[in-house]
Amino acid sequence: MTNLDREHLGRVRERFTRTAQQFASFALSMRSEEAERLANLALADFPAAAQGTAVDLACGPGTFTRAFAARVGFMIGLDLTPAMLGEAQQTAARAALTNLAFACADANALPLPVAAMDLAVCAYSYHHFLEPRRAIQEMARVLRPGGRLAGVDIIVPEAADPEWNNRIERARDTSHARTLTTAELHALVEAAGLRLLASAIGERLRQFDHWMQIVGYAPGSPAYDETRRLLETSMPGDTAGFHPRFAAAAAPGAPPELEFVQTSLFLVAEKR
Fold this sequence. Notes:
Structural class: alpha/beta
Strand content: 15-25%
Oligomer: single chain
Number of strands: 8
Shape: globular
Order of helices and strands: HHHEHEHEEHEHHEHHEE
């Protein structure tokens, strides 16, 4: 592991330790439908999963872990940040799920043997990896032949400028590495020896203030002001692909609400 890797992993751990409760509240309330969508997409015509073993990389507070654990034989949730694992354990306890276990691990080097898993899940994490290729190859390594990879992450829309898009994301969150395009994610999956089975786009309307609150920044903070400035600057021509717009103010005399659209890619692939 290089010094750059260590520094970046430190930023990821610091960010999700500092915002563990805020992020867990958001992910569990607003991404549960997406977790169900990915689980349904991944497990269609895949009866082996019902008695199989699955792993959820960078599982966070367990939103996707919970959805898949209800459908597989045994589930393992892995995350780099102990605070996130604590949130995931609470999530599993509330759902009365007993067919799972959690451990602290780096998605770039999974503590699992070759061909040990029937299913590997990774949700909203590729953009935090310096080299998403390594994480996808690790998932392919631990999958059995015929096993499936299920993933979802934010993407840069096709007509947008990736540099602008990522500049905004990094202004908001220093643990952000790079948002990929649909073509890049498809290419990484296929390069890992996986056959693409399904790919679908999802969109979610987001409120800017809430988006910033999740990473711990309030109006008036430098990160808040810079991120908002960049997003507003991208409005002419929708340069960054966020489709930003002003909405009615939340209260009389308050500045107008800033809304935008977050675009995601759901994909399922099979190990050849």
